[in-house]
Amino acid sequence: MKKLPLVDIDDRVLWLLAIAYIAQAYTFPLSAGNVFPLYIAQFSFVVFFASLYIVGAIPSGKISRQNTITIISVFAFLLLTISINQRNYTTDQESLAIMKLLGFTLTWAIFSWCACNIDIARFFRRIALCLLPLFIYIAIMFYNRSFGSRVIPFELQPNWWGELAVAFAIASAGFNETKYRLALYAVVAFVVFIVQSRSAWLAFGFIGLIEFGRLSEAKPVGMRLKFLTLIICAAFLSIAVPIIRSFIANKILLLNNPYRGLDTGFTGRVTGWLDAISVGFRSPFFGNGFSTYLFVHNGYLQVLAETGIFFFIAVCLWIIYKIASLLRNGAWIQLTAVVAPAAFIFFEPRIFNVNMDSMIFWLGMLHWNVSPIERK
Predict the structure, then answer these.
(1) How far apart (Å, rounded) are the C-alpha atoms in residues 121 and 285?
(2) Packing angle, helices 332-344 and 309-329, rounded to 10
(3) Residues near 235 by beta carbon (within 8 Å), at least 6 away in sequence
(4) What's the whole-number average pLDDT of the chain?
(5) Is the pLDDT of residue 207 over 70?
(6) Average pLDDT in the 1-11 region?
(7) Contact 330, 217 (CB under 8 A)
(8) Checking phi first, is residue 3 left (phi over 0); if not, alpha (psi -120 to 50) or beta?
């Protein structure tokens, strides 16, 4: 029997992702909070992948025509919105928008290659195992502060940790064994709790519903009843028991928080949402231009404002169709990769982006070839 190489193809892609995000981490302190590190990450990933592809370290593999048409169509339309709305950009803003779009498109194209040529479930498992030590470290180091104020590990924005936690949860769905998935979900839930990311809680709730469907398929009667009983009991306790109801309202949803609660309009986000809706209907065909409404904390309304009502409807219908198709086929891992970020985007302005959640989402929206590439 021929021995396989020690370094597998998805190992190499994972290494490239690691290099890209390490580059982002090292450049972040020098950036004063701007988007420069994201560009460092995305272009280092693209350049390194292209280099290995050219020298043959990564094989040519299969390329899906359906995925290629999708990526080119989205790129062309978003570029058109920039061109038509040039008056809404300064020269620097227009250059940054084009750079962001190019980086996003090239990264998406690489993920399209991954969808057709490597075992995505195994790839997800390896991502989860890479992230696990970091999340365990955070859980241990910040345990004593978990019931106080919002925790900010390494002084990075807590919502970014929520974003990474959702990516970790999605990657954990790649494990076939239920006990491993649930153990990793428990780590995710604790980290999401201490960083107080409500959008991550929303995504995590949908992951729980998908897990219910997955368990029901594996063990149709017994596991389904147990899981449904647990959900009913949790819902009853959260409503009937005052201390639990107060804990959910004040510690998880933060409804009464003086800085982030209902009285603040969710930290002023409602105002941004209403503005985005107004712009989307006022410019229905091409919106205000790609990457002009980054302050709107809702990815869907960001799309509405930046690209117009018609592209917004097309994206929403595409997501609904994809979810229905994956549900019909019982593709639980890919379904998780679509639904969890789609829920997270409701409170985050990161739909066309190169962060981990966004790229996993657009990977999920593509056609997958579930079989890994055959090697000679």
Answers:
(1) 38
(2) 150
(3) none
(4) 80
(5) yes
(6) 50
(7) yes
(8) beta
For the stretch 259-314, pLDDT in tens is 555 555 556 678 888 899 999 999 999 999 999 998 888 999 999 999 999 999 99
Burial of residue 40, with CB atoms counted within 10 A of its CB: 0-12 exposed, 13-18 middle, 19 or more buried? buried
**Domain ranges (residues) in the chain:** 1-60, 64-118+257-367, 127-254
User: What DSSP assignment string belongs to 148-208?
Assistant: SSPP-GGG--HHHHHHHHHHHHHHHTT-SSHHHHHHHHHHHHHHHHHHT-HHHHHHHHHHH
Q: Say which residues have a Cβ less than 8 Å from residue 275's Cβ, sequence separation at least 6.
A: 296, 305
AA identity, residue 239 = I
d(CA 15, CA 20): 9
Residue 212 burial by Cβ neighbours in a 10 Å radius (0-12, 13-18, 19+): middle
Please write the tens of the pLDDT for every residue from 13-43: 766 776 666 555 555 544 445 556 666 667 7
Residue 254, by phi and psi: left (phi above 0), alpha (psi -120 to 50) or beta? left
Residues 119, 126: Cα–Cα separation, whole Å: 11
How many CA atoms does the CB half-sphere of 201 hold within 13 Å? 15
Q: Are 286 and 84 in contact (CB under 8 A)?
A: yes
* 107-145: pLDDT as tens digits: 899 889 888 888 888 889 988 988 898 899 888 887 765
77-364-291 Cα angle (round to 5): 35
CA 44 to the chain's CA centroid? 20
Distance of CA 19 to the CA centre of its chain: 19
CB 118 within 8 A of CB 170: no
- Tens of pLDDT, residues 142-195: 776 555 567 777 777 777 888 889 999 999 999 999 899 999 999 998 888 888
Structure tokens at 340: 């969890």
376's tokens = 């000679």
Q: In the structure, what pLDDT confidence band is assigned to residue 322 with cuts at 50, 70 and 90? A: very high
